[in-house]
Design goal:
Elements (H helix, E strand, L loop, with lengths): L1 E3 L14 E5 L1 E3 L5 E3 L4 E9 L3 E4 L10 E5 L9 E2 L24 E2 L4
Parallel strand pairs: 8-9
Antiparallel strand pairs: 1-6, 2-5, 2-7, 3-4, 5-6
Length: 111
């Protein structure tokens, strides 16, 4: 099943093999929204496009549903591995920004 979005997917951590979860958002009035108590596993990510996800799920997803995902625990069980990491931080705002802290959980890969 293809899940289409009206805006580009801007989440670098979403990858093939992640599990997609869906929760329907119920509108209570013009201002407040509330999610239902049910969060259902939809399927596994098979492919990712700029504004769509191909899923192994077959159940239709209602427009306006809240979609989230979890990582595959077999492939994503630790932090960064190795001896070297390069990080590039970009401020896409027209206003200045301050960076207060940056951190990472790392593990040596050849010990």
């Amino acid at each position: 099943m293809i899940i289409n979005f009206t805006t580009p997917i801007n989440n670098a951590s979403l990858q093939v093999g992640d599990t997609i979860y869906v929760s329907f958002i119920e509108t209570l009035n013009d201002i407040d929204q509330q999610t239902t108590n049910s969060v259902n596993a939809h399927g596994v990510v098979l492919n990712i496009g700029s504004s769509w996800i191909e899923s192994s799920g077959v159940d239709p997803i209602d427009e306006g549903s809240f979609i989230t995902f979890s990582k595959n625990n077999l492939a994503n069980t630790s932090g960064l591995k190795g001896y070297y990491a390069a990080v590039e931080l970009t401020n896409n705002s027209v206003r200045p920004a301050e960076l207060f802290a940056i951190s990472s959980n790392t593990a040596l890969s050849s010990k």
